[in-house]
Amino acid sequence: xxxxxxxxxxxxxxxxTAFEATGRLGSAVKAxxxxxxxxxxxxxxIHSLEEQLNLKLFERHGSGLKLSNSGQRIxxxxxxxxxxxxxxxxxxxLNSSLNRILISTTSSIAQGWLxxxxxxxxxxxxxxxxxxxxTQAFDDIDKDEIDVVLRMGDGSWPMHHLEPLCDxxxxxxxxxxxxxxxxxxxxxxxxxxxxxxxDLDPLLDWSEWVGDCKDDENVGCMRLQGGExxxxxxxxxxGIALVRHLTVxxxxxxxxxxxxxxxFKLVRNAVWVGGARNSLHKVHVRRFRSWLHREANRNLTxxxxxxxxxxx
Length: 312
Known about the structure:
The chain is of the alpha/beta class. It has helices at 5-8, 13-25, 28-35, 39-53, 69-98, 107-124, 141-144, 176-181, 207-210, 227-235, 245-254, 283-304, and strands at residues 58-61, 64-67, 100-105, 129-134, 148-152, 160-174, 196-199, 222-224, 240-244, 258-259, 265-275, 310-311.
């Protein structure tokens, strides 16, 4: 049998509790009164602790007890451990009572889709406190206790309760003014390469859309990193950008961007949701994730209504 030396060397909680109370109060009688047990029970726990550690922890001092040198060092460690535990339990109880949800996603998802819907979610569940961080990085999700992580990609990330949130579409967009300048119809094959905004996202590759019709080997007048930059460039009339629907759905709805043509590329399981190990133990987090699924799929379904697509 394999023995965990670290845990097997740790005395029982009852022994440590009796020791801490006696060391703090200087009396087994007072410790028993505080812990609502007899002083003989306290003395028995301390005797067992001294035998297990093979150390003398107390010395008789008048009518009370005084910690030995070893007892003082151990008392400091036990007291700090108890204080840390109580503080952590209090913090967790407070977080639970606040129904707080910590969310981590990219700025393109946050700005293009999530923020507006979070404002709406507050009306459906006003007791929940939302804390949102926009980042590309993957920090220690368990350590930071991130309840909900939203990312675009293949789902190969170190997080728990990971599942696909929704499919997505990729298609070219431009500003209404750019469309108007082209007499209301933009022909990609006829556009100069300088009008194509290039995103470094490998799924937003123009070669699939323009083929060999461009004589410029590096298609595109700009090379941008981050979906929000490409869509912003298109909104400012700087050219045509390939985008993911989830990150521009609000701009499409408001008329800030318009699709170029009727050709759309469907990407299965394009967006994923996960979280920390204990995230789904919280009822309000499970409720929020169910809402996310409904919103994400409703968003795509409404856009796809009677829209021809080509699947990736």
